[in-house]
Amino acid sequence: MTIAERRARERQERENPWRPIGEAKADGMICELRMSNLTELGFQRYFFHGGIWYRIDPPKRMHARYDGLVEYRPTGITLSKHRRENAVWLAEEGGAYEYRGGEYLPKPKPYKSYWRAPDEKGDQ
After folding, report:
1. In this structure, are residues 60 and 4 in contact, taking their beta carbons and an 8 Å threshold?
2. How confident is the model at residue 39 (pLDDT cuts 50, 70, 90)?
3. d(CA 124, CA 118)
4. Taking 60 as the threshold, does the pLDDT of residue 34 lie above it?
5. What number of H helices and E strands is found in the chain?
6. Which of 8, 34, 77, 120 is the most buried (most CB within 10 A)?
7. Where are the domains of the chain?
8. pLDDT digits (tens, 9 = 90+) for 58-99
9. How far apart are CA 45 and CA 54, in angstroms?
10. Burial class (CB in 10 A: 0-12, 13-18, 19+), 84
11. Burial status of residue 47 (CB atoms within 10 A of its CB: 0-12, 13-18, 19 or more)
12. What's the pTM?
């Protein structure tokens, strides 16, 4: 790690400090989570919705007590309403298709793992 990278990381940590998990607000902000077993190490992104933490990709419902959630840090980016609703639905129901803006987007057949619909009309 270079000196510039270290300074950038320290500046980011000053601007967005780790906060206790109990202070989280359900505002759609994408966050990093720190867990008691240190398994994620900042590679996954989460959001807080309706009193529950959800992992974004692949969608999963997180349990504060069982997953050992300790602290969170907002990234400064807010997830859109449709993305939030879809991630919650996929985490709760485990669907193989996606609804965005009330429009049904079927999962393409060649894909067997996690899939996300294109962002724009006609985007492949």
Report:
1. no
2. low
3. 6
4. yes
5. 2, 8
6. 34
7. 3-79
8. 888 988 777 788 899 998 899 988 889 888 988 887 766 666
9. 9
10. buried
11. buried
12. 0.69
Q: Which amino acid does the sequence have at 18?
A: W
Among 59, 63, 9, smallest CA distance to 35 is for: 63
- Average model confidence (pLDDT) for the chain? 81
In the block, which residue shows the tokens 């724009």? 120
Q: Which residues contact 18 (CB under 8 A, 6 or more apart)?
A: 34, 71, 72, 73
Q: 46 - beta bridge partners?
A: 31, 55
Q: How far apart are CA 46 and CA 37, in angstroms?
A: 17
The average pLDDT across 37-58 equals 84
Structure tokens at 91: 């985490």
Query: How many Å apart are CA 22 and CA 17, to the nearest integer?
Result: 15
Residue 88 tokens, joined: 């919650």
